[in-house]
Design a protein that fits this description.
Keywords: Lyase. This is Aminodeoxychorismate lyase. By secondary structure, the chain is α/β, with parallel strands linked by helices. It has eight helices and eleven strands. β5 and β6 form a beta hairpin. α3 packs antiparallel against α4.
Length: 271
């Protein structure tokens, strides 16, 4: 993959963020999350709306795209109005892919998305939603070098596509995920999700005998995802380096992203 400096000088990519529009979300946040457990605007049908705008702003700032920053910093109301124009039917859930280019031009690709219990959009500690599907979670056989294209989400995703192919994941509809790994053997993230594992923490102000949910730190090279930020803000998890060697065949985990919310997974090391 080209370096951040070269590609940002003559950009052929866009910064992106993918989120869920769900008409049931305002009801869920109103009844199951108080003002401190869900980011504003709490009653929007756009999942983690402010976090998605923040993510795009941070990417534009990293790549020094001033025109994109001007577009994204107009305010949340303007950002939501921009998204509203793309919704075909406000009574159904949708998957939105927001893309912003170097010149500050934004576009939204809208597709139908899977029906699900909207409670699963909240962090697991806040609900007892139904989970009928367990995702299979594989570990990539090769490594990826961290860069601005792994820290920030862009259309330059060849490394992630290749990891999915190596894992035998051929369709975005599959309930399977592959964990990408940096050259030091540290888990960075999933190809389309943030992973969480149950681990014992040593040397911190946490009971060493009690396992807690952990997620890889950004220093391992992964993406600063929106659902990851939400999980950390609510104390669902803490950051800890997780290596490929730490993975246990058959262990249960959580996965999250801006469209599916939080889903259960199981690690598969042998096939």
């Amino acid at each position: 993959m080209a370096s951040t400096t070269i590609s940002a000088a003559t950009p052929s990519f866009q910064i992106i963020s993918t989120l869920r529009f769900d008409p049931d979300l305002p009801r869920v946040t109103s009844h199951n999350a108080n003002d401190e457990s869900y980011p504003v605007p709490a009653h929007s049908p756009y999942y983690l709306l402010s976090y998605h705008r923040d993510r795009l702003i941070n990417a534009a700032r990293h790549f020094e795209w001033d025109s994109a920053l001007d577009f994204l910093q107009q305010g949340l109301d303007s950002f939501e109005s921009f998204l509203d124009g793309s919704i075909p039917n406000r009574e159904k859930p949708w998957r939105l892919r927001i893309a912003v280019d170097y010149n500050g031009k934004g576009s939204v690709e809208v597709n139908p998305t899977v029906a699900m219990d909207p409670l699963n959009l909240l962090v697991p500690s806040l609900h007892s939603g139904t989970q009928s599907t367990i995702w299979k979670v594989y570990v990539d056989s090769q490594s990826i070098t961290p860069s601005g294209f792994t820290t920030h989400k862009t259309t330059a995703r060849d490394d992630y596509t290749a990891a999915r192919v190596r894992a035998g994941i051929t369709s975005p509809a599959e309930t399977s995920e592959v964990l990408v790994v940096n050259p030091d053997g540290e888990i960075m993230e999933g190809s389309i999700t943030t992973p969480y594992f149950r681990r014992h923490i040593v040397g911190k102000e946490i009971n060493a005998n009690e396992a807690v949910w952990v997620t890889p730190p950004l220093t391992s090279g992964g993406n600063a995802g929106t659902s990851r930020r939400y999980a950390l803000s609510q104390g669902f998890c803490v950051e800890q380096v997780i290596t490929k060697a730490d993975m246990v065949d058959g262990e249960e985990c959580w996965l999250s992203n801006g469209v599916r919310g939080f889903v259960r997974g199981v690690v598969v090391l042998s096939r």
